[in-house]
Amino acid sequence: MLVNLNDVLYQALARKCAIPAFNVFGYEDAKAVIDAAAEMGSPVILATNKVAIHHMPIEVIGAMLVEMAKKAAVPVVVHLDHGQNYETAAKAIAAGYSSVMYDGSALPFEENVRNTAEVVKLGHAFGVSVEGEIGSVGYSDSATGNDGTLTDPYEAKVFAEKTKVDALAVAVGTTHRMETQSASIDYHLMEEIQKVVPVPLVMHGSTGLPDNDLQEIAKMNFCKVNIGTAIRMRFGNSLRKAIHDKPEVFDRLELFQSPIKEVKQEAVNKIRLLHANHLT
Ligand code: G3H
Ligand code: ZN
């Protein structure tokens, strides 16, 4: 069934577990993630980022994911990841997304507050949950020029109160697009943030987190844990192997079989580490 963040994050908060938000780019990985969640009896978040909606128009991927969510046996959130502006958030809402992120983390504080609050007003008018970001989770890929800035707990509190976001992404040491689980997070900062921020917290760049950190953050107020690169690597590496192992096969539906299986396994593993299977 299609749900929004508020339908699942408070349950996760109460039960000391976290819901994974997996970045998906099409039918195959979305199906693998939903199948993993259904097998584990866990809610799940399907997230589409800028690259995904550049590849496939937001109305098209939105309609597909919403339909898949409605048919799923477990709660599924269809979420816009790192929305760049009000227009994109509005398009996502029109396409049926149940949740959007507005990422104004690169802007000055007051501008980020103003823009995020406008998206919150729009989202809430349509029953759509809204995530904001304060501080900035950087990128391991130096070409983006964004090394990130750790979140200040007081700013996070004021930001959450002023914008009325449903969930807040904070920067505590992870970096987007890491290919190894070698990020180091600041637990003291995380404690300070969760003491004063009244809404569920979001961890971005979670591919970089070691398994034991995933287990630990799930017990804290980090109720939404974003995982993208781990899934992309599993899909791409498995597809490469399938093409190499079966040079005579040109039918992509056949070549997609092992990537779908491997993405499902990866999702099952992360769901287990976050204890999300305890939720339904
Ligand atoms: O918003 C998406 C995530 O933060 C994914 O990050 O690709 O480093 O796991 P990741
Ligand atoms: Zn992110």
TrEMBL record:
The record's GO molecular-function terms, alphabetically, read: aldehyde-lyase activity; zinc ion binding
Q: Cofactor(s) for this protein?
A: Zn(2+)
- Keywords tagged on the record: Metal-binding, Zinc
Instruction: Report residues binding Zn(2+) 1.
Output: H82, H176, H204
Cite a single Pfam family from the UniProt record.
F_bP_aldolase
One GO BP annotation here? Answer: carbohydrate metabolic process
Q: Where does Zn(2+) 2 bind?
A: D103, E133
Active-site positions, per UniProt?
D81 (proton donor)
Q: Which domain of life is it from?
A: Bacteria
Q: How many cofactor units bind, and how?
A: Binds 2 Zn(2+) ions per subunit. One is catalytic and the other provides a structural contribution.
Can you say what this protein is called? Fructose-bisphosphate aldolase, class II
Species for this entry: Gracilibacillus ureilyticus
